[in-house]
Amino acid sequence: MVMFGYPIETIYLIGLIAAGSLTLLLVFFGDAIHGMTESIPFLSPTLVLAFLTFFSACGYILEVSAIFSTFFSLAISSISSLILVILLHIFILVPLSSAEESLSYHESELKGRIGNVITSIPADGFGEVLLTSTVGFISRTAASFDNAPIPSGTKVLVIESKNSVVSVTPYQQFEDIL
């Protein structure tokens, strides 16, 4: 079939190249585009470009293989790309958007955590502690809460956290106190 003076395979291929190029630009300038389209969540540029890419690729493959008629290939391409975009959105984009938020932590969340001193903390100075987190380890500058020196290797409890400095005290488990 010929459309606009070009074979339909050529139109699908041009669409695929254009959608792929726009997707590459979206990777580099996605934050600016995301801000402009935030008011219309169902028309996400990522989903629109994914639909165009899947549609063009599926249409090209079906036309080159010449299994079906042009209109049936168009219908199959539309349905399959819609299904793939829905799966992309549900199983990849939604979990990624919620994962971004879970990787960060707030300074107030450090209170009550247990860690190890990796650089000795002098009485009126600073050292360094290594705190465990669900996403890995957090290394923070530390000061002694009681203004007592704490040697390296001591297990400590974070009492408070201010201005990126945690105040710590040596940690004793309940069984050790009895």
For the CA atoms, what is the radius of gyration?
Answer: 28 Å
| SSE succession | EEHHHEEEEEH
In total, how many domains does the architecture comprise? Answer: 2
The first-to-last residue Cα distance is 87 Å
| Proportion in helices | 40-55%
Q: Proportion of β residues?
A: 15-25%
Key descriptive features of the protein:
178 residues, alpha+beta, OB fold (Dihydrolipoamide Acetyltransferase, E2P), 2 domains, 5-stranded mixed barrel, two-stranded antiparallel sheet, 4 helices, 49% helix
Helix and strand arrangement:
Layout: E1 2-3, E2 6-7, H1 8-36, H2 45-65, H3 70-102, E3 114-119, E4 126-133, E5 136-144, E6 155-162, E7 165-170, H4 174-177
Parallel strand pairs: 5-7
Antiparallel strand pairs: 1-2, 3-4, 3-6, 4-5, 6-7
Helix pairs in contact: 1-2, 2-3
Note down, in words, how this protein is organized:
By secondary structure, this protein is α+β, with helices and mostly antiparallel strands. Helix 1 packs antiparallel against helix 2. It has four helices and seven strands; from the N terminus they run E-E-H-H-H-E-E-E-E-E-H. The protein starts with a strand and ends with a helix. The strands form two sheets. The protein has a five-stranded mixed beta barrel. A two-stranded antiparallel sheet has the order 1-2. Helix content is 49%, strand content 23%. The mean pLDDT is 84. The chain has two domains: 101 residues, no CATH class; 66 residues, Beta Barrel (OB fold (Dihydrolipoamide Acetyltransferase, E2P)), CATH 2.40.50. The radius of gyration is 28 Å and the shape is rod-shaped.
